Automatic annotation (TrEMBL):
Domain of life: Bacteria
Organism lineage string: Bacteria, Pseudomonadati, Pseudomonadota, Alphaproteobacteria, Rhodobacterales
Family: Belongs to the ABC transporter superfamily.
ABC transporter domain sequence ranges: 5-243
A GO term, aspect molecular function: ATP binding
InterPro entries in alphabetical order: AAA+_ATPase, ABC_Ni/Peptide_Import, ABC_transporter-like_ATP-bd, ABC_transporter-like_CS, P-loop_NTPase
Keyword Disulfide bond in annotation: no
A Pfam family of this chain: ABC_tran
Record-given protein name: ABC transporter ATP-binding protein
Membrane topology qualifier: Peripheral membrane protein
Keywords: ATP-binding, Cell membrane, Membrane, Nucleotide-binding, Transport
Species of provenance: Rhodovulum viride
Gene3D superfamilies named among the record's database cross-references: P-loop containing nucleotide triphosphate hydrolases
């Protein structure tokens, strides 16, 4: 296994905050793996993702180290793709879908306008948007929420990133669409050898998608291990309580769904 990135003693404090949002976190992320980060709201999942992607707000205090395996530090948008919970955040209502994609493509890759448009249509096809040639001329509001999230994924992968971060990317979608988008993320990462960091509060989705699961609690990573092991035989009492809460709220099929 090749190391994509290693975190050592990573701590983050937002400007003006009294407590750190991330405390002394260590993590090794390997090329091509799918890691789910789970934990309750406010535990630091998004902060971890933002720190890795270089998207922390100005003035944040970061201690510790982020080491990338080899090559230069990746650039967000090119080497790291980011999909947010709300696709509206990545889509400008005034720009056509084709314009969004061609701008990202031409910012990061040496493509002519014509080649960028052809590549944009291919990307829409890859994320299973019907009739890509027509979709290029349409605007975000002309698509369903699930389709907008597919377009946001197309934008995130346009420049061929090594790491894709999906931060609650399916949380705003209904269950059926959630499953479809999860399947799409898995297919894309497998086909392109991309590493996936998948942030969710849904343990069943984490079990469906991830090779490993990391559990966050109060700014710390309390447990990490193979998905099936974490779900079937959690070592930490906090993970057990998260699982118990999930089983109270959801179907009892969670363990059977782990890979
Ligand atoms: N921009 C910010 N400025 C100040 N504090 C912040 C900022 N963003 C997050 N925080 C705080 O940092 C802590 C961790 O937040 P974070 O968003 O990483 O948690 P999370 O686990 O992703 O939560 P959620 O599941 O609700 O998105 C929380 O206490 C939160 O209030």
């Amino acid at each position: 296994m090749t190391l994509l990135l290693g975190l050592t003693g990573l701590s983050v404090r937002y400007p003006g905050a009294r407590a750190p949002a991330l405390a002394e976190l260590g993590l090794a992320l390997f090329e091509g793996e799918k890691l789910a980060i789970i934990g309750e709201s406010g535990s630091g999942k998004s902060t971890l993702a933002r720190a890795i992607a270089g998207l922390l707000p100005p003035g944040s205090r970061v201690e510790g180290r982020i080491d990338w395996g080899d090559g230069p530090t990746p650039r967000p948008g090119r080497d790291i793709g980011y999909v947010f919970q709300d696709p509206g955040g990545s889509l400008n209502p005034l720009l056509s879908v084709g314009r969004h994609l061609t701008e990202v493509l031409r910012t990061h890759l040496p493509l002519t306008a014509r080649d960028a448009r052809a590549r944009a249509a291919e990307l829409l096809d890859t994320v299973q948007i019907p009739d890509p040639a027509r979709a290029l001329n349409a605007y975000p509001h002309q698509f369903s929420g699930g389709q907008r999230q597919r377009i946001a994924i197309a934008l995130a992968i346009a420049a061929g990133p090594r790491l894709l971060i999906a931060d609650e990317a399916t949380s705003a979608l209904d269950v059926l669409v959630q499953t479809e988008i999860t399947a799409l993320l898995r297919t894309l990462c497998d086909a392109k050898g991309m590493t996936l960091l998948f942030i969710t509060h849904d343990m069943a989705l984490a079990g469906q998608l991830a090779d490993r699961i990391a559990v966050m609690h109060a700014a710390r990573m309390v447990e990490i291990g193979p998905a099936a092991r974490v779900l079937q035989a959690p070592r930490e009492s906090y993970t057990r309580s998260l699982l118990a809460a999930h089983l109270d709220l959801a179907s009892p099929r969670l363990v059977g769904e782990a890979r």
